[in-house]
Amino acid sequence: SWTMNSIIDDSVAAIRAQVGDARVILGLSGGVDSSVVAALCARAIGKQLTCVFVNHGLLRKNEPEEVEEVFTRQFDVDFVHVHAEERYEQLLAGITDPEEKRRIIGSQFWNEFFAVAQDLDGVRFLAQGTIYPDIIESGARKTGGKASTIKSHHNLIPFPEGVHFDLIEPLDHFFKDEVRALGTALGLPDHIVHRQPFPGPGLAIRIIGAVDREKLTVLKEADAIVREELDAYNERLFRETGERNGEGSVWQYFAVLPDVRSVGVMGDERTYARPVILRAVESSDAMTADWAKLPYEVLTRISGRIVAEVPGVNRVAYDITSKPPATIEWE
Ligand code: XMP
Q1: Global pTM value
Q2: Tell me, what's the ipTM?
Q3: Cα gap 2→6, rounded to integer Å
């Protein structure tokens, strides 16, 4: 639209004026905000932008490939894929405390990121996907608000000693809906623009207890089935009602892997294998959430597919707790 194009033109002009011919670095997570910043900077300064994608191995099935595809084929930027999966695997080995996991994952991100930044010549700017609500929320955090006391999030950067960047935050006066609209106007695919919230620490906080490679594989496969089925369910609702995120649609949905085993039976054999927990909620802002009253046939299908298709899983449970008193995530 006219307004969207003029917003983009203004942002592009502002970025060019600020940056000149300097290099800009951006930590790309695959999330909406950093992707929109990348797309905007791509239009403004092209290859002067280095996007650093730190692959911690904790994203969902196919996500790293999708991110790489978009920012190597569709946008003409300098894209660095940091394969940090094994380093994260080692750092997380045996760690069971959720806040400890978050701390390790967050601080290793900056280790990986600054290692790339140091190898590049003359990086002057750091671009960030800070949006308007982040600024408000970080205010709340400083005064001991809810956001910091329940779970730590990792949007604020601790620069190491002696490191300095000037910040570029082109989204800092936009709300999430506006950021999505910008993303669409810039040509980002729907799977990025309409991506559901996904925690920075990724699947590590959806594996209860210690994270290891085998559990990650199980969770990725189960989660892919949950998303496929509930994407389709939301799509059916949309076709019937013409409305997205309306009555009955699910807002955030994923699989959780608890740290227990249970007995089952397959053919003539007793199994002693993993359960998977399905979490699906209706919400508008994640502050409160209702567990989704999914039709039984949808639940049946998800359960049937997971136990049939994911080796090592013999049971599926559905979390029927709202927030509060539970949180959306399990850790
Ligand atoms: P909870 O579990 O607190 O989650 O009800 C509220 C929303 O925030 C997401 N979430 C996180 N996002 N880093 C993030 O970037 C985190 O550590 C984190 N923990 C939870 C969660 O997915 C939900 O949308």
Answers
A1: 0.91
A2: 0.99
A3: 6
